[in-house]
């Protein structure tokens, strides 16, 4: 049975580890955006520095919303939050 909810997948490349999952929260800081992504290992945070030189990539990343599915190839670090 198909869900009528639109599936929007964002795909961008930085370098390093591959992560694919659903964005569960977004923290907007002065110099960075931090995406909390839920994948099969748990929750992972990915940081994007806002000082990007490429406007196309910057606009694409800044358009990502909670509940979007994203694939990131880049530097990530595991969140220390426990899910109890």
TrEMBL record:
Transmembrane segments: none annotated. GO terms for molecular function: nucleic acid binding. Pfam families: tRNA_anti-codon. Residues 18-78 form the OB domain. InterPro entries: NA-bd_OB-fold, NA-bd_OB_tRNA. This is OB domain-containing protein. It comes from Plasmodium falciparum (isolate Dd2).
